[in-house]
Design goal:
Layout (H helix, E strand, L loop, with lengths): L11 H11 L3 E3 L6 E3 L1 H20 L3 E2 L5 E3 H4 L3 H7 L4 E5 L2 E3 L6 E3 L4 E8 L4 H11 L8 E10 L13 E11 L2 H21 L6 E4 L11 E8 L5 E11 L1 H5 L3 E3 L5 E3 L1 E8 L1 H10 L16 E6 L2 H21 L4 E3 L7 H10 L4 E6 H5 L2 E6 L5 E5 L3 H26 L1 E3 L3 H10 L3 E5 L4 H11 L2 E6 L4 E5 L6 E9 L3
Parallel strand pairs: 3-9, 17-18, 17-19, 22-23
Antiparallel strand pairs: 1-2, 4-8, 5-8, 6-7, 9-10, 10-16, 11-12, 11-24, 12-13, 13-16, 14-15, 19-20, 20-21, 23-26, 24-26, 25-26
Length: 491
């Protein structure tokens, strides 16, 4: 089965698409630029969603749901916001169809034009803040800590499954606070939650940082981010958390009566991650044989495959396999016994390898006689023969070990692919020959940032939090700089 996958070395982009399709995660849809998330891919997203949702609720957040449609006038209320999203908006202009008088199907009824066009949400700040105006009157109503799981639409011309599609799934948190300090604290707290989730569940090491003014979210005063590195040396923004200041509160006149009985505008944050995380997961860990998934979020953690000749052998193997199955299930392991007879064991091996199932157990008649079982790891492709006594405890511990080692390998990769440079020549050479994160001095101006991007297609991914301060000169302009920033070519 792995022969059907284009190798990473041959064509990285095609390799990625092959894994998404052949790994059963998603498919192309009849709507250009959109995708169908298949059950296996959606289960992976559900496990991500479940872990994040618990982390949100453990920190006091609650879920709600707001409309898909946003009145066009709402987007006009915050200038930077509309400027940032105007080119990506899908617009609803009519509310009815009718039969074509010429008998050619249906046409838009010109009599059904909306008085005000509706925008299919690209993000929900405007519709949510128009609602918060009615919900917030006093300091007693604060903080307001709300998240929603939803779909959004950003009209993309060049799409790639999971990484960039016209419609995608995500969560977006929107919070309101009495003070600037509380809103900033919330923004940083959610960034920490994203970083913890990426590392502990996705085995994905990330750099926490703040975006430059040019890369900020439209309407934010500060955008914090987690940046990850893919196997091809390109960066991928895995999540963002925005300090919105009082911009949306002022745009929608959201005020509260403080403890001194004075009216003031509330302070805000917003934060989100999307199904783009599935793309990050694929590109950070997988290989030329298929997906490699961390046990904590893998749809299926263990598969048991029997090898037998005849009904008698199968009956004996079934009894032991089902015993192992029930023991693993009792430990909360997601496990499957694949005793289907429509495919040979070799085909099954390749199929579950393609799907990235972390552990494969193979049980044959001779194994049963010897009280042994073959255990294969998907991440390293190592095999070993293990005693059947205590196999459930062994596998349970192995899943923990795989999760830990996947993160450690990914951390080593990021360290090896992070390079400090001190000259323009070194900067360009590193980008072209090594890739990864390039730590370089920058003079802090948008002009220099734009010039570097135009010359090299590299962007400033972030200014790392707690960044060491050191005197230097900008790699392009030669002007003074007090710290390095992380550049990379990115998705």
């Amino acid at each position: 089965m792995s022969k059907e996958v284009t190798s990473r070395a041959e064509d990285y982009a095609q390799w990625y698409n092959d894994l998404v399709i052949k790994g059963g995660l998603a498919d192309y849809s009849a709507v250009r630029g959109c995708m169908v998330i298949k059950p296996y891919g959606y289960t992976l997203w559900e496990h991500m969603q479940g872990a994040l949702d618990k982390m949100f609720k453990d920190t006091g957040h609650v879920n709600a749901y707001f409309p898909l449609f946003i009145p066009k006038s709402f987007l006009s209320k915050e200038a930077a916001h509309v400027e940032g999203f105007a080119k990506e908006c899908a617009v609803v202009t009519h509310y009815r169809l009718k039969n074509d008088p010429d008998g050619k199907g249906v046409v838009v009824d010109p009599e059904a034009k909306l008085e005000e066009e509706l925008i299919v949400r690209p993000t929900s700040e405007t519709i949510i803040w128009s609602t918060y105006k009615d919900w917030i009157q006093s300091y007693r109503d604060l903080p307001l800590l709300i998240n929603q799981w939803a779909n959004v639409v950003r009209w993309e011309m060049r799409t790639r499954l999971f990484l960039r599609t016209a419609e995608f799934l995500w969560q977006e948190g929107h919070t309101a606070h009495a003070t600037k300090e509380e809103a900033v604290e919330e923004t940083r707290k959610m960034l920490d939650i994203y970083a913890t989730f990426a590392e502990e569940f996705m085995a994905l090491p990330v750099i926490k940082g703040v975006k430059t003014a040019s890369e900020r979210f439209a309407g934010a005063e500060d955008t914090y981010c987690i940046e990850s590195l893919m196997q091809d040396g390109k960066a991928l923004q895995a999540g963002t958390s925005h300090f919105l200041g009082q911009n949306f509160a002022k745009a929608f006149d959201v005020k509260f009566l403080n403890k001194e009985n004075q009216l003031e505008y509330v302070w805000a944050s917003s934060w989100g991650v999307s199904t783009r995380l599935v793309g990050a997961l694929i590109m950070a860990h997988s290989d030329d044989q298929g997906l490699v998934l961390p046990p904590k979020i893998a749809p299926l953690q263990v598969v048991i495959i029997p090898i037998y000749k005849g009904a008698d052998q199968k009956a004996a193997i079934d009894a032991k396999a089902l015993e192992i199955l029930e023991n693993l299930k009792s430990k909360g392991v997601r496990v499957k016994y694949d005793d289907s007879d429509n495919n040979r064991p070799g085909w099954k091996f390749a199929e579950y390898e393609m799907k990235g199932v972390p552990v494969r157990l193979v049980l044959g008649a001779r194994d049963l006689e010897n009280n042994k079982i073959e255990v294969a790891r998907r991440d390293t492709r190592e095999k070993e023969t293990v005693n059947l006594d205590g196999i459930s405890q062994y596998v349970d511990g192995l899943l923990v070990k795989i999760q830990f080692e996947m993160l450690q390998r990914a951390r080593v990769f990021v360290q090896e692919k992070t390079t400090p440079v001190n000259s323009w020549e070194e900067f360009v050479k590193t980008l072209d020959e090594k890739g990864g994160f390039v730590a370089a001095h920058w003079d802090g101006t948008a002009e220099t940032e734009a010039a570097i991007k135009e010359k090299t297609k590299a962007t400033i991914r972030c200014i790392p939090l707690d960044n060491p301060q050191e005197e230097g000169v900008c790699i392009l302009s030669g002007k003074p700089s007090k710290e390095r920033v992380l550049f990379a070519r990115a998705y």
